[in-house]
């Protein structure tokens, strides 16, 4: 009998992946955690039945959530990652020798344990000596931070369940306060394509616009997320994502990446008209 993982993307659209076997299932204090093996996407992690990452396409999300801000801010030393218990964002961040310290604030220790065991592709650098893991609610953690980080990466689940607080005005205001004078924040900002997701995206964008002087949205193609069209928010106190993008610094670093490059950096901020309209309408 064939086994399929199915995620409901809308009431009228399902997304299914053929599965070889289920490797793990467990209920943590926060969510149900599942890991599957699949012929097309390799191993993949879902939380409460929602796709978090697959071995085949996680590079797109993690390269875009890390290298875009890192190539705009000229001197990132301290980073706060909120969520991101799979370790993919940390894996990309520790490639930078200038990064001195990373606080990873993940609410669910079981996600980290499961990823360490089943997804070494993303969790492989969580033991880097520059990384401190805090098992706390990110919403609460940022309340106590002031002038502490050059970069905040909000690598959260969707705006319901444990991730809900990470899309609030209070949270973005506290992120602003937690950043140094030249700091910037990026977040995963849902998809613009299906109306329900677009409303969540617009709500997050509006709150970020109200909290930061510079705020833009950039996009990537992520096949296993609803509609495949995914957005990220870029919010900054000083640096502009295009005019302060340092193309030469990226070339000099010589990183081997599979999605991100300097043309993608600038191109990702060029949005389709329907997305521009959604953002103007907030
Ligand atoms: N790339 C993914 C996506 O968009 O589907 C996100 C992956 S990462 C696994 C998301 C993590 O955020 C989860 O491990 C979840 O436990 C964590 N998380 C959710 N709410 C949180 C909160 N309030 N504080 C800290 N971590 C949170």
UniProtKB/TrEMBL annotation:
Q: Which domain of life is it from?
A: Bacteria
- Any GO MF annotation of the entry: spermidine synthase activity
Instruction: Locate the residues binding S-methyl-5'-thioadenosine.
Output: 31, 106, 137-138, 162
Q: Which Pfam families match?
A: Spermine_synt_N (PF17284), Spermine_synth (PF01564)
Residue numbers annotated as active site: 155 (proton acceptor)
Q: Where is the PABS domain?
A: 2-237
Q: Coiled-coil annotation: which residues?
A: none
**What InterPro entries does this protein map onto?**
PABS (IPR030374), PABS_CS (IPR030373), SAM-dependent_MTases_sf (IPR029063), Spermi_synthase (IPR001045), Spermidine_synt_N (IPR035246), Spermidine_synt_N_sf (IPR037163)
Alphabetized, the UniProt keywords read: Polyamine biosynthesis, Spermidine biosynthesis, Transferase
Give the reactions, separated by semicolons, that this protein catalyses: S-adenosyl 3-(methylsulfanyl)propylamine + putrescine = S-methyl-5'-thioadenosine + spermidine + H(+)
Q: Which PROSITE patterns match?
A: PABS_1, PABS_2
Pathway noted in the entry: Amine and polyamine biosynthesis; spermidine biosynthesis; spermidine from putrescine: step 1/1
Q: What is its EC number?
A: 2.5.1.16
Residue positions annotated to bind spermidine are 62, 86, 155-158
UniProt cross-references to HAMAP family, sorted A to Z: Spermidine_synth
Instruction: Please explain the role this protein plays, according to its UniProt record.
Output: Catalyzes the irreversible transfer of a propylamine group from the amino donor S-adenosylmethioninamine (decarboxy-AdoMet) to putrescine (1,4-diaminobutane) to yield spermidine.
Question: Hey, which family's this protein in?
Answer: Belongs to the spermidine/spermine synthase family.
Subunit organization: Homodimer or homotetramer.
Identification of the protein by name = Polyamine aminopropyltransferase
Q: Which organism is it from?
A: Sporolactobacillus spathodeae
């Amino acid at each position: 009998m064939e086994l399929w993982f199915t995620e409901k993307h809308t009431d009228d659209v399902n997304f299914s992946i053929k599965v070889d076997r289920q490797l793990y299932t467990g209920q943590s204090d926060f969510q149900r955690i599942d890991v599957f093996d699949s012929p097309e996407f390799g191993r993949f992690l879902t939380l409460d039945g929602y796709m978090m990452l697959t071995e085949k396409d996680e590079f797109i999300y993690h390269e875009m959530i890390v290298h875009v801000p890192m190539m705009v801010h000229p001197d990132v030393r301290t980073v706060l990652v909120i969520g991101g218990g799979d370790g993919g964002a940390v894996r990309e961040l520790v490639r930078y020798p200038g990064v001195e310290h990373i606080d990873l604030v993940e609410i669910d220790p079981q996600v980290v344990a499961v990823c360490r065991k089943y997804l070494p592709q993303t969790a492989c650098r969580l033991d880097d000596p520059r990384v401190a893991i805090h098992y706390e609610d990110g919403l609460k953690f940022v309340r106590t931070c002031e002038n502490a980080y050059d970069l905040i990466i909000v690598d959260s689940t969707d705006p319901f369940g444990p991730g809900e607080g990470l899309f609030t005005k209070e949270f973005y205001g506290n992120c602003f306060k937690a950043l140094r004078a030249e700091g910037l924040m990026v977040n995963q900002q849902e998809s613009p394509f299906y109306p329900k997701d677009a409303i969540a995206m617009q709500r997050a964008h509006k709150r970020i616009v109200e909290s930061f002087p510079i705020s833009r949205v950039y996009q990537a193609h992520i096949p296993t997320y609803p509609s495949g069209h995914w957005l990220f928010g870029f919010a900054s106190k000083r640096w502009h994502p295009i005019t302060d993008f340092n193309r030469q610094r990226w070339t000099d670093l010589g990183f081997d990446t599979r999605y991100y490059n300097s043309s993608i950096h600038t191109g990702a901020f060029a949005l389709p008209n329907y997305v521009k309209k959604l953002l103007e309408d907030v």
